[in-house]
Amino acid sequence: MRASGVNRPAGTGVLLAACVSALVVNANTSAVTILLPAISQDVGASVDTLQWAVTGYMLVGAAVIVTSGALGDVFGRRRIFLSGLVLFVLSCALIALSSGAAGVIAGRMIQGAAGSTILACGMSLLSVASAGTGQLRAITLWGAASAVGAAAGPLIGGILAGSTGWQGLFWIDAAIAALCVPLTWSTVRESRDPDRPREIDVLGSVLVAVALVPLVLALSEGGGWGWLSAPTIICLGLSVFGGIGFVLAERHATAPLVDLQLLRNRVLVGSATAILLVAGVINALMYLLSLYFQDPAGFGMTALQAGLATLPAAAAMIAITPVITPLAVRIGPRYAVAIGFGLAAAGCATLAFVEPSWEYTAFVLPLIVLSVGLGLANGPASSASTSAVDPEQTGQASGISNMARYVGGSLAVAAAGTVSTAISGGRADTGAPAADALAAGLAGAAVLLALMSAGGVALALLLRHQRTEPATAVHLAAAAAATSHTIPTRPLPATSGGPR
């Protein structure tokens, strides 16, 4: 790591606003899956329908994460950050007041836009408010806050579901985000990037949605529609159309959402794909397990008990953090990524043998192994995605990797949910007991996640020319936060706006 000759620490106000909001957004994101059974019972909708509260959030986040950073560069980072906070407060209120699935899903999709805006612009505010070692300290604190929020979310959600009702999470998040508004207004200076073109690639954002939404819809509903049915084929065709249109639009955009030239960088492509797979596996697994643990045919846990049950995974990912960068330095990032995905594949493969007779303790070791593996794969991949490009391209590279994280989560949750539901339904139709059908569905989805993890091992070949910098505090924070956001480990130019 190299530091700038100028050392300018970030002010207390911008540090608090960015770090507290990042903690709240990440805690909210990881808590929602735990709350789905409670929400389902309260609003009278199936969990399969409410899956869109998870995938919809990620889909919108993928389309907005880069655009929001560009909006901040052009119209003012503080202004767009404040807009994200206000939108987050309103979305929390909409969800908490909803009496049906439509309100919850719509609120979560709005929250996806708000959350990605807060994360992108919050990091940008820190980048322009500090320099040198002061900037690295600010980024380290932001990364630590993100990691703590993501780890604590399921437990917080479980506690609130049992005490205040599931709505309590959203009211508390709304209150904290609302407090960040006057703090930001009074302590954070406005900033823009005067060298950036004023054009915003709105078409690119729309085409991302056109490519992803039909694809997720096909993955979610294809089992019921029939994989060769007209609705499924139409959705897949729309997705292909959106993908082709996106590439064509980016080639002609003045300020493209994604610089297609960067996709010629093999290390960046490999690391972004690794990030996509990690995000997919961890999000899908937490979705499946939170439902299995709370299902009466499974363990029949309360939301709080389910939140506690996921702690071994969160604790393992945090515990491995201090080891990730030193190990990647010693053996090379490609071997670290390969070993990580190998461990994740082994853990998921173990869960493929789940039986109704399994006690909770049988899940603990596979959970720890695969979580350690995903952390080990994700840290070097996240670091490589930004260090493999020139300093002036760091923001774009970070945006690509963060978009990949949202895409991976949405696609994998939809695919794993469909596999689990199809297998469980098929077993139930043959007269199998509910516990057997539920376990079979989880086992089938675990096979899919094991295959995804095994595919990640091959990505090590794309990282063979990548070198890893010696470990510092910012590397550790970046590794810890890598499941939720990519944090550059090099100081950023004051006008770059930081990562997306």
From TrEMBL:
- Highest taxon listed in the record's lineage: Bacteria
By its UniProt entry, which InterPro entries does this protein fall under?
Answer: MFS, MFS_dom, MFS_trans_sf
Q: Annotated Gene Ontology MF terms?
A: transmembrane transporter activity
Q: How does it sit in the membrane?
A: Multi-pass membrane protein
Pfam family name, one: MFS_1
Major facilitator superfamily (MFS) profile domain mapped to chain residues: 14-468
Gene Ontology cellular component terms for the protein in this record = plasma membrane
Spell out the subcellular localization from the entry. Answer: Cell membrane
Q: Which UniProt keywords apply?
A: Cell membrane, Membrane, Transmembrane, Transmembrane helix, Transport
Query: What stretches pass through the bilayer?
Result: 51-72, 84-106, 112-132, 139-162, 168-188, 200-219, 225-248, 268-289, 309-328, 335-354, 360-377, 406-425, 437-463
Query: Known PANTHER family for this protein?
Result: BLR6921 PROTEIN, MAJOR FACILITATOR SUPERFAMILY MULTIDRUG TRANSPORTER MFSC
Name by which UniProt lists this protein: MFS transporter
Instruction: Give the organism the record lists.
Output: Actinoplanes cyaneus
